[in-house]
């Protein structure tokens, strides 16, 4: 009996010692460096999407659809008839800008090269002048991309060889912004994913899937088609205003939207951030899958880093998620893209 009591006492003592030791270890851990949060898990369909992506690379090219010398891709769908149809969407005469102010200081999402340098020259009694300088490709400046921005295997859209087509001196000969110098004037379709999810914004890093786009189409009663501009709203600027700037995480188009894009063939894919979802676990070693698919395979242009807050507020108030959009690049010979100030006209 005594031996049994001693054994019980010994067990209780060991348990208590372990508990105290555990408390001490936890206290020590709290006093030290906080453990890193685990990275996002790859979506369950990642392996299937990677395999599909390689097949889509072969199946979804529109090279030659508008001729061997074509430089405009799906913008060819913006015909005079398309322009006239888009004009009929103007009902209220309300015009809002879709561009944020040009960044003037470095931030998490504004690299040093992305700062818009404005120099106001000598101010006299008679006036003054400005000099502007900016590297607009990035996360903050509203801009459009052209075929010269992304290549695969030394080729641009429509099979144009990069060699001899792009030089530091001349820039991009074929596929430059000069192909859009007359401007874009077409129908825009707003995909309000924040409203769809019942949130002020979509948290960074969330993949926006085809099912999300189609659910919004069912809810709103409108959907994108050939020659349109798709505008994906995740509430990026609203979150930035409340939480501060960030980088590296984007609620963007997921890979399963690529067949949707190929079916619809819009002129531009738009977003209030960069278009690719990020981070992309399971896609290591592959750069910007959506950029490559639209710019290189399908001839769909990109317009991104838009500020859609005013447009969303107006669209929700009017309950109208299609409207006229117009913008044009700076006519820079050889340009791979351009800052833009798109206008939504309701």
Please state roughly what percent of the residues sit in beta strands, choosing from under 5%, 5-15%, 15-25%, 25-35%, 35-45% or over 45%: 15-25%
* Count of helix runs: 9
Q: Give the H and E element order.
A: HHHEEEEEEEHHEHHEHEHEEE
Strand adjacency order, main sheet: 1-13-11-7-8-9-10-4-12
CATH architecture name of the largest domain: 3-Layer(bba) Sandwich
The end-to-end distance, rounded to whole angstroms, is: 90 Å
The overall number of domains is 2
Low-confidence stretches: 1-37
Helicity, as a percent range: 25-40%
The CATH topology of the largest domain turns out to be: Glucose Oxidase, domain 1
How many DSSP-defined strands? 13
* Average pLDDT over all residues: 88
Helix-and-strand structural type: alpha+beta
Rounded Rg: 26 Å
How would you sum up the global shape? Answer: globular
Question: What are the defining features of this structure?
Answer:
346 residues, alpha+beta, Glucose Oxidase, domain 1, 2 domains, nine-stranded mixed β-sheet, 9 helices, disordered N terminus
Textual characterization of the structure:
The protein is of the alpha+beta class and 346 residues long. It folds into two domains: 46-100 and 142-345, 3-Layer(bba) Sandwich (Glucose Oxidase, domain 1), CATH 3.50.30; 102-137, no CATH class. Helix content is 29%, strand content 15%.
What would a concise description of this structure say?
This protein has about 350 residues and is α+β, with helices and mostly antiparallel strands.
């Amino acid at each position: 009996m005594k031996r049994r009591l001693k054994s019980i006492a010994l067990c209780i003592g060991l348990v208590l010692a372990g508990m105290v030791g555990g408390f001490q270890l936890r206290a020590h851990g709290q006093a030290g460096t906080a453990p890193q949060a685990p990275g996002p898990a790859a979506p369950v369909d990642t392996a299937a999407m990677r395999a599909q992506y390689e097949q889509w690379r072969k199946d979804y090219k529109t090279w030659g659809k508008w001729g061997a010398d074509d430089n405009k891709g799906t913008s060819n769908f913006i015909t005079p008839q398309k322009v006239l149809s888009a004009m009929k969407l103007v009902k209220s005469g309300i015009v809002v800008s879709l561009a944020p102010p040009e960044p003037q200081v470095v931030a998490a999402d504004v690299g040093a090269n992305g700062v818009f340098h404005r120099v106001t020259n000598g101010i006299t009694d008679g006036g003054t002048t400005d000099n502007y300088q900016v590297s607009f490709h990035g996360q903050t400046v509203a801009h459009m991309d052209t075929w010269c921005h992304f290549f695969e295997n030394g080729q641009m859209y429509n099979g144009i060889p990069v060699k001899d087509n792009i030089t530091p001196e001349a820039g991009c000969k074929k596929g430059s912004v000069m192909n859009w110098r007359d401007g874009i004037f077409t129908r825009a379709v707003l995909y309000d994913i924040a409203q769809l999810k019942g949130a002020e914004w979509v948290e960074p890093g969330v993949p926006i899937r085809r099912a999300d786009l189609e659910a919004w189409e069912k809810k709103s009663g409108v959907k994108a088609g050939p020659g349109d501009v798709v505008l994906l709203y995740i509430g990026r600027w609203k979150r930035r205003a409340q939480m501060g700037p960030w980088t590296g995480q984007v609620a963007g188009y997921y890979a399963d939207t690529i067949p949707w894009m190929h079916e619809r063939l819009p002129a531009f894919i738009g977003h209030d951030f960069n278009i690719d979802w990020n981070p992309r676990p399971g896609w290591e070693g592959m750069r910007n899958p959506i950029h490559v698919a639209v710019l290189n395979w399908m001839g769909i242009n990109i317009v991104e880093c838009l500020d859609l807050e005013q447009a969303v507020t107006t669209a929700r108030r009017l309950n109208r998620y299609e409207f006229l959009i117009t913008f044009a690049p700076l006519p820079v010979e050889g340009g791979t893209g351009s800052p833009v100030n798109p206008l939504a006209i309701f």
